[in-house]
């Protein structure tokens, strides 16, 4: 008898959050690669996502929900499953058909994943519909999820304050850089197409005010070119307010994994600004390539980046960056530490622990 694990790929077509959408596909691929004997992985997709799911190798025939993604995030928080609930369900996001079920006698179980708490910490940066949907889905999870996966204990601690009923059902399983994430052979050409020089400082995450502060601190360094990834809404305003010449700032927008790797290949260091409760995707990718990382002090950064990054209070980031760049020897030391820590993250390890979690349940 074959055991089927249904994996929800809610953003297989309609991408709302690029990082969680990319992570969902990575989770699905890794679950296929690590599937125990007599187990298979079946994608649950929105009505318009069947063809896209078939492009992911190794997945079983998709289970098609009766609605597009917009319909799912409207109906699922109300308990309208559309006929796709039941069995073993794993959602790499919070979007799942969360309904009352009998895990003990019918072997039904539903596990969801929460990569960040933006809907609670920075709701003003999200659409009202997204905030309402995430909050409603978390309430459903409190009632009906058998487990909630978060990427760090710091996230679990914060989630405990928001949804205390989930405390005993929270499991920590980290994310990772995309499988095989590495510098592409055409990295130089990719950077030329993006307008990125071969030696840059990369800034990721943070608010407009934080970005402005960091840019202001390097405005007097004439040779510094800054690439801004995961930019805030008004990055142009932050650059202007910082007094930094526009020709010294590159804002390439959302990039696919190979382009991100090409940009990071040119990075002297990556500065991670965010202090929010969220998995630090860009910092983990930088560490996968052995790029030195300087990060704003936060519970998530201290835990996830650990000794692989120079973590400092936000108002001391400039001094921390100077320490890392103090000499070629110091820069090399932090590159080695970064690369060592980067090897701790793997989607295959994530998938192994997901299979173990469902077996435990």
Would you identify the regions where 5 or more consecutive residues have pLDDT less than 50?
none
Please tally the helical runs, counting DSSP H or I stretches of 4 or more residues.
16
As a percent range, the share of strand residues is: 5-15%
> What best-fitting shape do the alpha-carbon axes yield?
globular
Strand order of the largest sheet: 3-2-1-4-5-6-7
Major beta sheet summary? 7 strands, parallel
Please give the number of β-strands. Answer: 13
Q: What percentage of residues falls in helices of 4 or more residues?
A: 40-55%
Report on the structure:
By secondary structure, the protein is α/β, with parallel strands linked by helices. Helices cover 41% and strands 15% of the residues. It contains 16 helices and 13 strands. The strands form two sheets. A seven-stranded parallel sheet has the order 3-2-1-4-5-6-7. A six-stranded parallel sheet has the order 10-9-8-11-12-13, sandwiched between helices. Strand 9 (226-229), helix 10 (235-242) and strand 10 (249-250) form a beta-alpha-beta unit. Helix 9 (208-217) runs parallel beside helix 10. The longest helix is centred in the middle third of the chain and has 17 residues, at 128-144. The two termini are 19 Å apart. The relative contact order is 0.12.
Question: What are the defining features of this structure?
Answer:
single chain, 361 residues, alpha/beta, six-stranded parallel β-sheet, 16 helices, 41% helix
Give the SSE map:
Layout: E1 3-8, H1 18-33, E2 39-45, H2 50-53, E3 63-64, H3 69-75, E4 88-90, H4 103-106, E5 109-113, H5 118-121, H6 128-144, E6 147-150, H7 153-162, E7 170-172, H8 187-194, E8 200-204, H9 208-217, E9 226-229, H10 235-242, E10 249-250, H11 257-265, E11 267-272, H12 281-288, E12 293-296, H13 299-304, E13 310-312, H14 317-324, H15 328-342, H16 347-360
Parallel strand pairs: 1-2, 1-4, 2-3, 4-5, 5-6, 6-7, 8-9, 8-11, 9-10, 11-12, 12-13
Helix pairs in contact: 1-16, 8-11, 9-10, 12-15
């Amino acid at each position: 008898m074959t055991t089927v694990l249904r994996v929800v790929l809610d953003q297989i077509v309609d991408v709302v959050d690029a990082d969680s959408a990319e992570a969902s596909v990575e989770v699905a691929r890794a679950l296929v690669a690590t599937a125990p004997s007599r187990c298979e992985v079946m994608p649950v997709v929105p009505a318009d996502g069947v063809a896209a799911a078939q492009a992911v190798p190794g997945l079983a025939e998709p289970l098609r929900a009766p609605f597009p993604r917009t319909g799912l995030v409207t109906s699922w928080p109300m308990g309208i499953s559309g006929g796709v609930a039941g069995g073993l369900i794993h959602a790499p996001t919070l979007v799942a058909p969360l309904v009352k079920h009998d895990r003990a006698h019918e072997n039904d179980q539903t596990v969801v994943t929460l990569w960040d708490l933006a809907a609670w910490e920075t709701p003003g940066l999200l659409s009202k519909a997204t905030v309402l949907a995430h909050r409603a889905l978390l309430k459903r999870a409190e009632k009906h999820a058998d487990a909630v996966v978060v990427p760090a204990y710091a996230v679990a601690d914060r989630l405990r304050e928001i949804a205390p009923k989930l405390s005993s059902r929270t499991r920590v399983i980290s994310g990772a850089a995309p499988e095989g994430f590495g510098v592409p052979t055409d990295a130089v050409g990719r950077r030329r197409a993006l307008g990125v020089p071969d030696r840059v400082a990369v800034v990721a995450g943070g608010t407009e005010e934080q970005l402005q502060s960091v840019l202001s601190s390097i405005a007097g360094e004439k040779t510094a070119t800054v690439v801004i990834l995961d930019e805030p809404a008004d990055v142009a305003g932050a650059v202007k307010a910082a007094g930094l010449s526009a020709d010294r700032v590159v804002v390439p927008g959302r990039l696919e994994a190979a382009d991100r790797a090409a940009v990071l290949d040119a990075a002297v260091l990556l500065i991670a600004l965010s202090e929010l409760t969220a998995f630090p995707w860009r910092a983990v990718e930088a560490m996968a390539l052995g790029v030195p990382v300087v990060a704003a002090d936060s519970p998530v950064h201290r835990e996830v980046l650990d000794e692989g990054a120079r973590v400092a209070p936000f108002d001391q980031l400039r001094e921390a960056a100077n320490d890392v760049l103090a000499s070629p020897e110091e820069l090399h030391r932090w590159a080695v530490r970064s690369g060592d820590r980067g090897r701790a993250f793997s989607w295959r390890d994530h998938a192994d622990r997901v299979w173990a979690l469902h077996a435990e349940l």
